Amino acid sequence: MELLRQAWAIARKDLRIERRSKEVVNAAFSFALVVLLLFSFTFDPTGDQVREMSGGLLWLVYSFAGVLVLTRSFAQETQNDCLDALVAAPVPGSAIFLGKALANTVFLLFLELATLPVFTIFYNVRWEAKMAWLLPVLVLGTWGFTVIGTVFSALTVSVRLRELMLPLLVFPITVPALMASVQLTTTLFTGEPIAGDLVWLQFLAGFDLIFTLLGVTLVETILVG
Amino acid sequence: MIAAQGVWKFFGDFAALREVSLEIAAGSTLALLGRNGAGKTTLLRMLAALSSPSRGTITADGASLREPAQRRRIGLIGHGISIYDDLTAAENLEFFASLYGITAPGERIDRWLETTDLLRVRNGLARQFSRGMRQRLAIARAFFHDPDILLLDEPFTALDDRAAALLSGLIRQAHDQGRTLIISTHQLREALQLATDVAVLDRGRLAFSGPNTEELKAAPEDFYRKYTETA
Question: Which pTM value belongs to this model?
Answer without folding.
Answer: 0.91
